[in-house]
Design a protein that fits this description.
Aspartate Aminotransferase, domain 2, 9% strand, alpha/beta, Aspartate Aminotransferase, domain 1
């Protein structure tokens, strides 16, 4: 362990401090009430300023992010965030706003929201958006509550079920359950698309709607979406669009034109705000004209919501413009198919058709398994990638495949980066065939080796 890999408490020495200030002469003491005083001193590390700076600077260099390397995280669209977005969002005239200012003094901020509303409406084919939801899952819940209100206002209280494909994001059934709706699963065909014949008998007077993303979680475009929309509408239900996979459609196809009635967008995915670790996020919900009368909720949450995320999204859209935003989707699709085709000889490809922004392998063609030696798994591949400076893709999701490895390069990566990733993935496949133990014990070059993830999940240590 290097010196600055230690915990800050391990660097602590009694009596050491990071500052030396003169005693304040013009400020009188104001003792705290006894009931607010601690019974014992707060246990804080005692360290010098230089030790603090070095400690946290070294910690920051252990982080992996889009600014430090390739991050092909399928289903999450971890694309690069252009720095002009950060510059605009950090402008003092925006960051200096106080959340309790009178509305008439923040008309510029309101114009940002109104302009973003118009841009997103044009991109998606919907009427208007509310920016109240602070994340994608929050957007799902909001959209489902709108669906429920739509039916309640029509006196259609029997519609208590929501159809969810078996390939859906896990948040879809979770959001429906939180909303008090019953989940009905529709199966996928062997080609990865919704089985329309399985859908038909599920439709009836108890169906509130269906939740879908298109492209779906396997990165495949639901070619029969108009037929699905017609069937659901004919039975009186609504279509909800999970916007997590909107990235490949930018400027090309609009969910509103497919027949969807409600959608949420992940501004922190499709529109390039960096995310992960729980935030920041923004999941605005858009509605078709038929649902617009039920959008009787505030346009934003308290204090204009995650305003910085909205600023970045608007900067991203306006920087690309109407013409250039049309390039984002096709480039994302091109990159995904390039990787898919380049590695299908060494990684199992369960569905060989053209994908959109992401695709899924199902483990290695040759995992190196032999008598007494277990083969390399998807987890082993993911851990070994860290040794080569690449973040691992999403693994073991979707649940349709036992050794799922989901890859999404996004449109921001160069061919050189994709070629380097392909070369490393080929190298790892060869390592697995020759010496799977090399992968079982990976990573070898990271500050922290492979943790016992099962024990960590079952017996978490949540405090020092």
């Amino acid at each position: 362990m290097k010196y600055y890999d230690k915990l800050i408490f391990e660097l602590s020495r009694s009596g050491r401090t990071g500052y030396s200030l003169p005693k304040a002469a013009l400020v009188s003491e104001a003792p705290l009430p006894a009931n607010l005083l601690r019974e014992s001193a707060l246990e804080l590390p005692e360290v010098s300023e230089v030790d603090v700076v070095r400690h946290y600077t070294n910690l920051s260099q252990m982080n992996f992010g889009v600014d430090t390397g390739f991050y092909p995280l399928g289903s999450c669209t971890m694309k690069y965030n252009p720095k002009i977005n950060e510059e605009i969002a950090a402008h003092p005239l925006f960051t200096g706003l106080h959340p309790l200012q009178p509305a008439e003094t923040v008309k510029g901020a309101q114009e940002v929201i109104d302009t973003l509303d118009s841009c997103l409406a044009a991109i998606t084919g919907f009427e208007h958006f509310t920016f109240l939801p602070c994340a994608g899952a929050h957007g799902e819940l909001t959209g489902l509550m709108l669906m429920r209100e739509y039916h309640a206002a029509r006196g259609d209280a029997a519609r208590t079920k929501v159809i969810v494909p078996d390939s859906a994001h896990g948040t879809n059934p979770a959001s429906a359950a939180v909303c008090g709706l019953e989940i009905v699963v529709v199966k996928s065909r062997p080609d990865g698309l919704v089985d329309v014949e399985d859908l038909k008998p599920l439709l009836g007077p108890d169906i509130a709607g269906i939740m879908m993303t298109n492209p779906n979680t396997l990165g495949l475009f639901e070619r029969e979406i108009r037929q699905i929309a017609d069937l659901v509408h004919e039975c009186g239900g609504l279509l909800y669009y999970d916007g997590a996979n909107m990235n490949p459609l930018l400027g090309k196809v609009r969910p509103g034109d497919m027949g969807f009635d409600i959608l949420h967008l992940n501004l922190h995915k499709t529109f390039s705000t960096p995310h992960g670790g729980g935030g920041p996020g923004s999941g605005p919900v858009g509605v078709a004209k038929s649902v617009l009368p039920y959008l009787g909720i505030p346009q934003t949450s308290g204090f204009h919501g995650n305003f910085g995320v909205m600023m970045r999204a608007l900067a991203y859209i306006l920087t690309l413009g109407r013409e250039n935003i049309k390039m984002a989707g096709p480039l994302a699709v091109l990159g995904a198919n390039y990787i898919k085709e380049s590695l299908k000889d060494v990684y199992k490809l369960p569905i060989a058709s053209v994908c959109k922004h992401e695709f899924v392998y199902d483990g290695l063609v040759n995992d190196g398994a032999r008598e007494g030696v277990p083969g390399a798994t998807t987890l082993d591949v993911a851990k070994r990638l860290l040794d080569y400076g690449f973040h691992a893709p999403t693994i073991y999701f979707p649940l349709l495949f036992h050794q799922a490895l989901m890859i999404e390069p996004t449109e921001t990566e160069s061919k050189e980066t994709l070629d380097a990733f392909i070369e490393v993935m080929h190298h790892i496949a060869q390592e697995a065939a020759d010496d799977p133990e090399m992968l079982h014990s990976a990573p070898h070059n990271t500050p922290i080796r492979r943790p016992d993830e099962t024990t960590a999940a079952r017996n978490p240590i949540v405090k020092a």
